[in-house]
User: Fold this.
Amino acid sequence: MRFLGFAFLLLLSHHALSCECSPLQPISKENSKAYNVIFFGKVDSVGVCGKDGISTAYFTIEELYKGAIGKQAHIDFDCGSACLMSFAKGEEWLIYASYPAFDKLTVSLCEHSRKHIDDVSKDYYAITSQRSFADEKHWLQTELGIQPFVVKNDLNEQQKTLKPHNDQPSGWKKIGLLVLSLLTMLVVLMISKRK
Assistant:
């Protein structure tokens, strides 16, 4: 009886700790609309897993297929739950990311993002979608096309250095403005009394 109870608890705990994703359809023009940014890139570095179970992977983008983004990108991902993702420096990925908040790109294990794996027999996405990494990359190039990167221009740099500010006139300029305002009000008052 103890064995049955132990087996039941083991089965229940395994079910509670496993990540359940719905079956993933191969990427198409229709389901690519769910993503804000799609690119092929290489992982530069990965941050530590935070207390909130979120980490960040930093990428250099080789080819951009969808979205407005520069050549460098940072992607937030789940690193603390049963559906955690794993990135390592030097890995090549096809990233399908969304913006849940301004300037915050995220990916999920249950979506289309996939790592380049040399051994196709170990590539889960190649098995389920019947499309290898190279085939999917070629599909993205032909169907979505390679998009230009957003280039930082001088205006962006000026906005960063200037920032919002409120310039106040000096003491004498304030007095001059006050006198000019009073004279203008007197002229308006005199004109209105004559009518």
Residues 171-194 form the longest helix (24 residues).
